[in-house]
Each structure stands twice: as C-alpha cells, then as structure tokens.
Design brief:
104 residues; mainly alpha; 5 helices
Length: 104
C-alpha cells in the first residue's frame, strides 16, 4: 500500500512539474511573440534588426535592463522595455536563448 502511495505521489509531482514547465514555456513564447515584428519569427531577423535566437540569455537580459533603465538608447526599445517586468524579460530571454541561432 505504501508503494502505491509513493508511486501516486511521484506521478503527481512529475505531472505538476511538467504542467508548470509547459505554462512557463507558453508564457515565454507569448511574450517573445511581441518581438517578432522587428526581430523576426522565433527571433530570427531578416533585416537590420539583430536576431535574438541563440543569443545568450544573460546578454539579452542585460540589454533589456539597459534599455529599461535608460542606460542604453534606442528608437523603440527603451519604451518597449519599460513595459516588461523583470520576470517577463527573463522568460523571453530564456526562450530566445533556447531557439536555434540563424544560419550565417
């Protein structure tokens, strides 16, 4: 009987962990989708705007925080960055970092 309880508890823990990860990934993907107009689908830019796909998570976070604080200038990004929480910036940065870098 104890082994059944342990198996059920382990299954529920795994299911909750997977569900939370899926929700986090969906949230990150949703935030990142707002970047597609300039940075391209999945962060692969086709123009002069830098691609975000495959960039280092810490680098993306640092750049966004610099835009948000005004330490880095830009035309659109300083205003856009102010609209994101630190958690949203980190989620999007993680999502872009996990995308395949564009072929060069």
């Amino acid at each position: 009987m104890a082994s059944i309880r342990i198996a059920v508890a382990a299954t529920l823990t795994l299911w909750c962990t997977c569900t939370a990860a899926q929700e986090t990934n969906a949230a990150a993907r949703t935030i990142a989708a707002g970047c597609a107009a300039c940075h391209g689908t999945n962060g692969v830019s086709l123009g002069r705007v830098p691609s975000l796909a495959g960039a280092q998570r810490a680098d993306i976070v640092a750049r966004m925080q610099d835009f948000k604080s005004g330490r880095r200038s830009g035309t659109v990004m300083p205003q856009l960055a102010k609209g994101y929480s630190d958690e949203q910036i980190d989620l999007a940065a993680a999502w872009f970092a996990a995308q395949p870098a564009p072929a060069r």
